[in-house]
Amino acid sequence: MTSKHSLRDVLARLEKEGAALGHFNVADHVLFKAVVAAAVQTKLPVLIGASEGEREFFGARQLAALVKTQREELDIPIFVNADHTHSLAKAMEAANAGFDCVGIDFSALPFEENVARTREAVQAIKAVNPAILAEGEIGNIGTGSEIHETAQGDPKTLTTPEEARQFVEATRIDILAPAVGNMHGMLKSMVQGKAKKHLDIPRIGQIKQAAGVFLTLHGGSGTEDQHFRNAIGAGINIIHINTELRVAWRQSLQESLARDPNEVVPYKILRPVVEAVKEVVGSRLRLFHGEVSPGAVASVA
């Protein structure tokens, strides 16, 4: 892998180009195949993410190995992130498995404790490999990339520029995940295409200036297309999409099973699922790189 394909260098290049790196979570090989296929089709870099639960199901070392082999075979910048890691042990597991990035998430703790535990994890994973990028998180954006009845997160706990500055200086993280109106999961109205998430764009710009590091937008599913573009312009470098993929996965699987109730060959049932998820990933990648196609993913219902 050449240096031009390091995660840090790709992020720096995209920032200059006014683009953001798409981060897509995977829990199985079907989702993995779909994300990689979208990267190949669009010829755009991707960051594959897996939460603690997803890594437990997939296998942390197995996922890291798959990403490595695909990166070597395809010569496309494909990276892997240990998303929402809530303990030092799990952060070390990801670092030792060969992950390119570790998302350290102690955001549910009081600020000072979040700082202390994040700093400890950053030092530990950098000791394994200094090239690993460490992400830290402050603010409340809810939990669970699922379909929710009511809004997640709390507008009173949006990240302030001063908190961002203090947090970055104290922890030495490479990437900051702030709360700026984003939330994990989607409301039912968002799945139906009747509602969209809206972001605090001025706050993103202020945090970027204060923090001076790469910024990640968690909980991107269901966000208004133009808000994504505005957020990128204000300083967002990585955008996480998970629930949209899960919705496409489930709906396409149901349709595939219904088309032929007697089919038992897994790859015949799952091919349309890979294609459906690939379309969602591809449309988001193009949007994050400035290719706006209104309504392309207005609804995945």
Please tell me about this protein's structure.
The protein is of the alpha/beta class and 301 residues long. It is built from 12 helices and 10 strands. The strands form 2 sheets. Strands 1-2-3-4-5-7-9-10 form an 8-stranded parallel beta barrel, surrounded by 11 helices. It has a two-stranded parallel ribbon with strand order 6-8. Helix 2 (29-42) links the parallel strand 1 (21-25) and strand 2. The protein is globular.
Span between N and C termini?
Answer: 39 Å
Largest sheet: 8 strands, parallel, barrel
Series of H and E elements: HEHEHHEHEHEEHEEHHEHEHH
Number of helices: 12
State the share of residues found in helices, binned by percent.
40-55%
Regions with little confidence, pLDDT below 50 for 5+ residues: 294-301
The gyration radius over C-alpha positions equals 18 Å
Could you give the order of strands across the largest sheet? 1-2-3-4-5-7-9-10
Shape: globular
Which secondary-structure class do the elements indicate? Answer: alpha/beta
| Percent of residues in beta strands | 5-15%
The counted number of beta strands is: 10
Q: Compute the average pLDDT.
A: 89
Summarize the structure.
The chain is α/β, with parallel strands linked by helices and 301 residues long.
Record the SSE blueprint:
Layout: H1 7-17, E1 21-25, H2 29-42, E2 46-50, H3 52-58, H4 60-74, E3 78-85, H5 88-97, E4 101-104, H6 111-128, E5 133-137, E6 147-148, H7 161-171, E7 175-177, E8 186-187, H8 188-191, H9 201-211, E9 214-217, H10 225-234, E10 236-241, H11 243-259, H12 266-288
Parallel strand pairs: 1-2, 1-10, 2-3, 3-4, 4-5, 5-7, 6-8, 7-9, 9-10
